[in-house]
Structure formats: structure tokens, C-alpha cells
Design a protein that fits this description.
4 helices; alpha/beta; four-stranded parallel sheet; 137 residues
Length: 137
């Protein structure tokens, strides 16, 4: 067993936001944090714009694929972060849960790669704060 903190990021499809958060955390925290991501209703493939927006800042998640959340994943995590308003994970005693209602630029008429960059930057700010927090214990 590892004594490194374990963070699980969850969204509905595990194709965009949770994958972005996991990739950003891995880049930021390296081996100091065990990072995983999952979806509550798994999509078929990663969101291409998510991949592109991360690649712009040197994060490569092309080897990842959407995965379904399991009870074991939730129990193993120290922190579970759900991204967006649609994903839901039942709480487990002893595990910290956070819900991030992320920026949704499409509500302001911003779409495409511009939208994804804003989503990425919002998630990146939150990941940086969480990384500092879990590193501090």
C-alpha cells in the first residue's frame, strides 16, 4: 500500500473534465499523488478538444480511455472530486468529497477550442489548490 494521497476525479462520461483534471494533477504533483479518473455513465472516447487544449500546455492524455467508476475506486480514494453538476457519487465514510461546478463558457456563447481552454484553465486553478492541500496532508 502506498502512503501517497489518492485522488479520484469523476464526471459523467470520463471523456473530458475528469480526464483533464487527472492529467493536470499528474503533471503538477508527479509521483507525490496517486491519481485516477472515472465516469458515472462512461463515454466511448476522450473528447478531442480536451486532448487538444491539454496538449497546448504540455499535458498528454492520449493514452487514457474512459473508465467506469467502481465502489472500490471510491473506497480507495482519500479525495473524490466530482466535476460538473450532473455527476453524482455516494459519499463514503472517511473519504473527503468535493464537487466542482466548473466554468461553462458555452452558456456565454463560447464554443470550440476557446471554450475548452477556459474549462481547462478553470480546472487547472482548482487542481493547483487541491494539489497544495493534499501535499500538506
Amino acid at each position: 500500500m502506498s502512503d501517497r494521497p489518492k485522488v479520484l476525479f469523476v464526471c459523467v462520461k470520463n471523456a473530458g473534465k475528469s480526464q483533464m483534471a487527472a492529467g493536470l494533477m499528474k503533471q503538477l504533483a508527479g509521483d507525490a499523488v496517486v491519481v485516477s479518473s472515472a465516469g458515472t455513465q462512461v463515454g466511448a472516447a476522450l473528447n478531442e478538444l480536451s486532448l487538444e487544449s491539454l496538449a497546448e500546455i504540455g499535458v498528454d492524455i492520449t493514452g487514457e480511455h474512459p473508465s467506469a467508476i467502481t465502489a472500490d475506486m471510491v473506497r480507495a480514494a482519500d479525495v473524490v472530486v466530482t466535476l460538473g453538476s450532473e455527476a453524482h457519487v455516494d459519499p463514503v465514510d472517511g473519504t473527503r468529497f468535493e464537487k466542482w461546478i466548473t466554468d461553462e463558457p458555452s452558456e456565454r456563447g463560447i464554443d470550440g477550442i476557446e471554450r475548452m481552454r477556459l474549462v481547462r484553465d478553470d480546472i487547472a486553478r482548482r487542481v493547483a489548490t487541491l494539489a497544495q492541500d493534499v501535499a500538506a496532508g
